[in-house]
Design a protein that fits this description.
The chain has 22 helices and six strands. Strand 1, helix 12 and strand 2 form a beta-alpha-beta unit.
Length: about 450
């Protein structure tokens, strides 16, 4: 019978395990603590630290091997890490920065006060690491330069495969993941790559220029946005992509794990914006921060609702003459909001999917209008039939409701399409259009259109 190794099973943090760890920390039972966590992955230990106080978490981190502790610190959430590292002095932080990738090191240092940042860089024993960090710090965090790491293996095109193997061995400690070796000329210009498979299978004495692949090398320049880098890596199924400057000189590389982190963070930001949350927050953040992140859109939505209420109030005399028209107000509001969100979500999705073939505004509108026309006709016919059944043959009321619904669906589709396109042109996150903004706007327009048609027809 096959025996399953317990350390390969997914770790589940329980309340009992956490209480036991806290007790061991209080008793300073170092060996017992290490025996509890020695078989866990860095991500599992991070989940434990998230539930401990700053002093308790620091106690555990100081017990760990420096490299493991550095990996754990680099995987902490940005806000949690900023608070956590307040418990460490500059010398302790420098010991961890020494052994992690340069891109992660820059992320950590950018979260620190300027004084701490300068002290840590000055205390780094690895001066090459210090130079890498200084080079990366002037790039925006969401562009290729800010996402890249300086650690990579490169070889001169004139060197031999044997020398390349020696270079891999020399840099193995600094470069954690080797996907390929980058080939450069005497000026450092990127010429191509050579795979590990070709290096292993090459004959003794072969030169790099005879085995490297010069065709189809995909690279990005430092100013390219993270979204464009993600699209390229997805399109060409890349595990890493080299970063070059304007002249084509190799500066660094972006690995797939860093790109996954970037995509996840971007997706979370879009989801929060679509939900009407104005700041990057999590469930365990302070109450005031959670309130502050939600309040702006709530107030904006209330202002929109007051405007919609004023429109209804303006037509109060029409409602008093024919009370039945008030029964269809929820139908008009909800349908307009749903159509607007559907349209804007599709446009936001298409804006995020850069295919290289830009669709003109007129073609987008043409397609949206055709879809909206079909949906509006079906919705209007359905509303007419339901109204006739409910209101026992009040044909003029049914006609008014169906015409109103037709107009609202057309208008909401148009608003849901144009709004994200305009926001995108203004360099504002178009995901804003998929949340409370579009719903509130369509409520106001929908009620206005409905009561205008009621006034004209009834």
């Amino acid at each position: 019978m096959e025996v399953v190794n317990p350390q390969h099973l997914p770790f589940e943090l329980t309340k009992e395990f956490l209480e036991e760890i806290k007790l061991l920390i209080a008793e300073q039972s170092n060996e017992a603590i290490l025996s509890k966590i020695e078989d866990l992955f860095a991500a599992d230990i991070t989940s434990i630290l998230d539930e401990l106080s700053g002093e308790e978490a620091k106690y555990i981190v100081l017990l760990l091997d420096t490299k493991l502790a550095a990996e754990i610190i680099s995987t902490l959430d940005s806000d949690d890490r900023k608070k956590f590292l307040k418990n460490f002095n500059s010398k302790e932080i420098a010991s961890y920065i020494n052994v992690i990738d340069s891109d992660d090191a820059v992320d950590i240092l950018n979260e620190q006060p300027v004084r701490v940042r300068e002290e840590v860089i000055a205390l780094l024993k690895d001066r090459e690491q210090a130079r890498f960090i200084i080079d990366l710090m002037h790039y925006d965090e969401d562009c290729a330069g800010g996402l890249m790491q300086k650690e990579l293996i490169k070889i001169n095109v004139k060197q031999t495969v044997t020398e390349c193997v020696e270079e891999i061995r020399r840099q193995a400690e600094d470069v954690e993941k080797v996907y390929a070796v980058y080939v450069v000329d005497d000026d450092g210009l990127l010429m191509g790559t050579v795979s590990l498979k070709k290096i292993i299978l090459a004959k003794r004495g072969s030169k790099i220029q005879d085995v490297f692949d010069a065709d189809g090398i995909v690279s990005v320049q430092t100013y390219i946005s993270g979204e464009e880098v993600a699209d390229l890596m997805q399109k060409y199924d890349l595990e890493a992509i080299p970063v070059v400057n304007i002249q084509g000189r190799l500066l660094g590389r972006i690995t797939i794990d860093d790109m996954v982190d970037f995509i996840t963070e971007s997706a979370q930001e879009d989801i929060q914006v679509m939900a009407g949350i104005s700041e990057d927050v999590e469930e365990d953040d302070s109450i005031w921060l959670l309130v502050r992140s939600r309040l702006p859109w709530l107030i904006g939505g209330m202002v929109g609702s007051f405007l919609a209420a004023k429109i209804i109030d303006r037509f109060d005399s029409s409602i008093s003459i024919m009370p039945a028209i008030s029964a269809f107000i929820p139908l008009i509001g909800s349908t307009g909001g749903n159509v607007g969100i559907q349209s804007s979500s599709l446009i936001v999705q298409s804006l995020a999917d850069k295919s290289g073939l830009d669709t003109t505004l007129w073609k987008r509108l043409q397609k949206v209008l055709i879809v909206a026309l079909i949906n509006a006709l079906i919705a209007a016919a359905f509303a007419f039939g339901c109204s006739m059944l409910v209101d026992h043959g009040e044909i003029m009321l049914s006609v008014t409701v169906s015409i109103s619904l037709f107009a609202v669906v057309m208008l909401a589709s148009l608003m849901g399409t144009i709004t994200p396109l305009v926001l995108n042109q203004l360099n504002i996150n178009p995901a804003v259009a998929s949340g409370p903004f579009i719903t509130t706007t369509n409520d106001i327009l929908g009620y206005g259109v409905y009561f205008l048609i009621v006034y004209l027809l009834l």
